[in-house]
């Protein structure tokens, strides 16, 4: 006589345990995706600020004799008035870059990228015996994130 029984299929308890284990795995993957998305957003913001400030520094270095004329402050309002001097034209270019004007095109229409009034971009120029120093201050994330970049021009 054969006393062993042949068990077929999976019990309900085993199925539920399997679903709980898979669910825990999905929760972990979901948290990793959320963290990665946040990290990418921070990285894109930092790269954008670095690019904008490097562009501005290069513009000032190209006209180092008039560096004191490049003081700049930009918020969400458009300040595109140019009086004709090189410094004023460059500041208009910076304002357009900082406002990210005409950078996002969907269905052949440019979309306005949202801007918070607490997000500011500033260039402060100081001339002293050590040379002319330029300090860029960028606030983003509704004014919560700050980035400073400074350089001696001449």
SSE ordering: HEHEEEEE
| Mean pLDDT over all positions | 77
Q: Give the helix/strand class.
A: alpha+beta
How many separate domains? 1
Apparent shape: elongated
| Computed Rg | 28 Å
Major β-sheet profile: 4 strands, antiparallel
Low-confidence stretches: none
List the main descriptive attributes of the protein structure presented here.
four-stranded antiparallel sheet; elongated; alpha+beta; 154 residues; 42% helix; single chain; two-stranded antiparallel sheet; 21% strand
What does the model show?
This protein has about 150 residues and is of the alpha+beta class. The chain has two helices and six strands, in the order αβαβββββ. It has helices spanning about 10-60, 85-100; strands spanning about 70-75, 105, 110, 120-130, 130-140, 145-150. Helix 1 packs antiparallel against helix 2. The longest helix has about 50 residues, at about 10-60. The relative contact order is 0.13.
Quick take:
42% of the residues lie in helices and 21% in strands. By secondary structure, it is α+β, with helices and mostly antiparallel strands. It starts with 11 loop residues before the first helix and ends with a strand.
SSE layout:
Blueprint: H1 12-62, E1 72-74, H2 86-98, E2 105-106, E3 109-110, E4 121-128, E5 131-140, E6 145-152
Antiparallel strand pairs: 1-4, 2-3, 4-5, 5-6
Helix pairs in contact: 1-2
């Amino acid at each position: 006589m054969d006393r062993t029984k042949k068990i077929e299929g999976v019990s309900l308890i085993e199925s539920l345990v399997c679903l709980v284990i898979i669910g825990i795995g999905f929760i972990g993957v979901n948290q990793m995706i959320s963290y990665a998305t946040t990290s990418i957003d921070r990285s894109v913001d930092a790269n954008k600020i670095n690019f904008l400030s490097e562009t501005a520094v290069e513009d000032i270095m190209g006209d180092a004799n008039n560096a004191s004329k490049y003081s700049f402050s930009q918020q969400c309002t458009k300040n595109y008035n140019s009086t004709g001097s090189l410094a004023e034209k460059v500041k208009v270019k910076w304002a357009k870059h900082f406002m990210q004007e005409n950078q996002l095109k969907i269905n052949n229409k440019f979309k306005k990228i949202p801007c918070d009034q607490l997000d500011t971009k500033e260039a402060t120029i100081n001339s002293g015996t050590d040379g002319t120093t330029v300090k860029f201050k960028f606030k983003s994330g509704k004014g919560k994130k700050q980035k400073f970049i400074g350089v001696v021009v001449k």
